[in-house]
Design goal:
This is Copper resistance protein CopC. Helices cover 18% and strands 38% of the residues. The strands form 2 sheets. It has a 4-stranded antiparallel beta sheet, with no helix packed on it. Strands 2-8-7-4 form a 4-stranded mixed beta sheet, with no helix packed on it. It has a single domain, classed as Immunoglobulin-like (Sandwich), CATH 2.60.40. The chain has 122 residues and is an alpha+beta fold.
């Protein structure tokens, strides 16, 4: 009986260890172009955000604001068809200055995550 209890406890522990990464797995930003905090010599034609998992188009947005907080574009971000973990926002011609990218996405689990970062155009 004691051996059976040990097996049950060990199995429950192993299951919790292996399942925990999936239970807390939400879409998180892995990379951006332009890079967060960077200064770029020329204005980007688009903002590209790469996440750790596929994101849902219907629940994902990107906003680009200038240094005064005013929205720079009314365009909607789109999920890359070939790489569904990438979200792109086409940008107009940007003047020199500081910009803030604000994003909100939902991954396959439906949980919404938000974040922001800034970059500067010389």
């Amino acid at each position: 009986m004691k051996a059976f209890q040990s097996i049950v406890i060990a199995s429950a522990f192993a299951a919790s260890v292996f399942a925990s990464p999936f239970a807390s797995a939400h879409a998180s930003l892995k990379a951006s172009d332009p890079l967060a905090g960077s200064t770029v010599a020329s204005a980007p034609k688009q903002i590209s955000l790469t996440f750790n998992e596929k994101i849902e188009q219907a629940f994902s947005t990107v906003r680009l604001n200038d240094s005064t907080g005013k929205a720079v574009t009314a365009a909607k971000a789109t999920v890359d068809v070939d790489s569904p973990a990438v979200l792109r926002l086409e940008t107009p011609t940007l003047a020199a200055g500081a910009y803030t990218v604000k994003w909100a996405v939902a991954g396959h689990d439906g949980h919404r995550r938000t974040g922001e970062f800034s970059f500067t155009v010389k």
